[in-house]
Specification:
298 residues, alpha/beta, TIM Barrel, eight-stranded parallel β-sheet, 11 helices, 8 strands, 43% helix, globular, disordered N terminus
C-alpha cells in the first residue's frame, strides 16, 4: 500500500499515537454504560494503555473504562486469532463479552476461508460469545477482485448467527445497498447491529424499519458529520447503541489520538445533545438495549 507524504501536523499525530498518548479522562457518567464494540487487543498493540500503564494491560484498559462509568465491554474479533483471544478473555472476565468473526477485509486474504469459518463457528458455540462480527461488506478497502470472497464470508457469518442465535454485528463501509441485498437474500437474523453506523437519516430509517440496532461511534462528534447526527436523531431509543471501535475513531476534541472505552462519555454526551435528551436517560436506554442484544454480562 502506498502512503501520501505526511504533513508535519500529521507526523506529530502519528508519533503521539505510537507513544500511546491517550487523552485525559472525561467526567464519569452517572449511569453505567457499555461499549458495544471495542478491540482491546489492537488498542494494546497500537497505542498501549492510558495513564501510567502499570499492571496487566487488558485489566488497565478495563479499569480505566470502569472509572469513566463504562463497566461492560464487547470485545470484537477480526480474524481467528483475535476471535479466539476475545472468547478466552470473556470466559474469565465478567466485564467482557465477545464477538467473533473474519473481518470483511480479511476474508479475501485468506488461503483457506472455509477453514477459518469453521473455527469461527466453533467459537460461536461458547456461552460468552454473544455476537458474530464484525462481518459485512467494505467496498472502500477491498477492490473488485476480493468482492466475491467478502460476500461469501458475509453470507457464512449470517448463517452462523442464525444457527447459534447470536447477534450479527455488521461492518458496512460504502456498501449500504449491498449489505441490505445480502441480508434480504439470506434472511436476517433476529438481532442485527450496524457497527459504527455510517449512513444518513434515509438509510437509518430503512435500518430502523428492519429492526436493526444502530451503534454510533466517535464519528458522530466530527464537524463534518451532520448527516450522521441526523441519523442519530431519528433512531428510536430502543434501537440505539454507542461504541468506540477503539483504538480508532476517537471523539472530538481528541480526534487523531488513541481511543479507548473510557472515552465513551464524550460520544454519549454528544448523542444526548443531538437528540435533545437527558444523558442519564439515554445511558439507561442504551444499557437496556445491550442486555436485549447481548444478554447479561454476569
Amino acid at each position: 500500500m502506498s502512503h501520501m507524504p505526511s504533513t508535519p501536523s500529521q507526523s506529530r499525530k502519528d508519533r503521539a499515537r505510537r507513544r500511546g498518548e491517550f487523552p485525559a479522562a472525561p467526567e464519569p457518567l452517572s449511569v453505567p454504560l457499555f461499549d458495544s464494540h471495542t478491540h482491546l487487543d489492537l488498542t494494546i498493540q497500537e497505542a498501549g494503555v492510558p495513564g501510567e500503564g502499570s499492571g496487566e494491560p487488558v485489566e488497565a484498559l478495563i479499569d480505566a473504562a470502569a472509572k469513566s462509568g463504562i463497566d461492560r465491554l464487547v470485545q470484537v474479533g477480526v480474524d481467528v486469532p483475535s476471535s479466539r483471544w476475545g472468547a478466552d478473555l470473556a470466559a474469565r472476565n465478567e466485564a467482557v463479552l465477545a464477538a467473533v468473526a473474519i473481518h470483511p477485509n480479511e476474508a479475501p486474504l485468506l488461503s483457506d476461508l472455509d477453514e477459518a469459518l469453521r473455527e469461527i463457528e466453533a467459537l460461536a458455540a461458547q456461552p460468552r460469545v454473544r455476537g458474530i462480527g464484525e462481518t459485512g461488506l467494505d467496498t472502500f478497502r477491498t477492490g473488485d477482485d476480493g468482492r466475491a470472497a467478502q460476500e461469501a464470508s458475509f453470507r457464512a457469518h449470517i448463517a452462523i448467527a442464525k444457527r447459534y442465535g447470536k447477534a450479527l454485528i455488521i461492518h458496512d463501509r460504502e456498501a449500504h445497498s449491498d449489505v441490505l441485498r445480502v441480508l434480504d437474500e439470506e434472511g436476517t437474523p433476529d438481532t442485527v447491529v450496524m457497527h459504527c453506523f455510517s449512513g444518513d437519516a434515509e438509510f437509518a430509517t430503512e435500518c430502523v424499519r428492519r429492526g436493526f440496532h444502530l451503534s454510533f461511534a466517535g464519528t458522530v462528534t466530527f464537524a463534518n458529520a451532520g448527516p450522521l447526527r441526523a441519523a442519530a436523531e431519528i433512531t428510536p431509543a430502543d434501537q440505539i447503541m454507542v461504541e468506540t471501535d477503539a483504538p480508532y475513531l476517537t471523539p472530538v476534541p481528541h480526534r487523531g489520538r488513541p481511543n479507548a472505552s473510557y472515552l465513551i462519555p464524550l460520544t454519549v454526551r454528544a448523542l444526548a445533545e443531538t437528540r435533545g435528551e437527558d444523558v442519564d436517560a439515554l445511558c439507561a436506554a442504551i444499557s437496556a438495549n445491550g442486555e436485549r442484544v447481548f444478554g447479561p454480562w454476569s
